[in-house]
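Table S2 (continued). Query chain:
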Amino acid sequence: SSGINAEYGVAYRYAAAGSHLIITARSVDKLSTVEAGCKERGAASVHVIPQDFSAIEELEGYRNKVLEVHPGGVDVLVLNHGAMPISPWMATPGHQDREFVDRIYRINLLSYMELTRLFMPSLERREGQIHVTGSMMGETPFFTAGLYASTKHGLHGFFKSLQQELLVKQSPVTVSIFAFGLIWTAEMEQVILSDPNGDQIPGIARGDVGESADIMISAAITKPSLVDYPVAVSVLTRFMQMLPGFNRFMTIAVPCPYEEIGEISERMREVGSKLGYQRGNM
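Corresponding output:
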């Protein structure tokens, strides 16, 4: 109900193609807006099922509600929810708390695994697809988002392994992982620009939200295993993986002292909270 989908309409694009849609998020109000937009664009049907994906124990009930609406199951399972605690782990009060870490993992990783388990039988019957919103930080970490990067590494590791298992099993289900970098959504722009150095991020490092939505939609046809976007950031992160010296150089090239990074992250967190942007805090 926010980010890529709300602004540039992954759901809206599926709606324009005449799809039957089930849309889910925590916010009922935001879902109502997306529902109306989908109907306006020609969706064959739209059903709203609110759900907090941090509540892993509720997801079987969520699956059952989906199957009540579409008894045959789903063709494309789009896993696009997440929490973004973007700040140094050691420098951020509360981020080492076990309850907070557990919540972030439930939202960003465990719910993805559980939803995949629950929907796999119907996906196999319908020769379906799983679309996973990953992150460049699932490929190459950076210390300003250690907790977030750890969940995305887990996500990429699990779904890349699942791709292999499905091949060996000769399953008809395909998995596409989107390793997105910084996608310049309206919410993200406000959060980033709350950092005095935020406007120094070059345009080549900013992913266009419209293009990212198009990538996700086209995957229903092309079925890629992994998509890196934006390409410039992908090249940079690959270099950081292959060249330890370059990785060290890029890490210590951060333009402000470590203490200031924590303060900047706190200001960004406050802006994100005002926007209702999920960063692991309710």
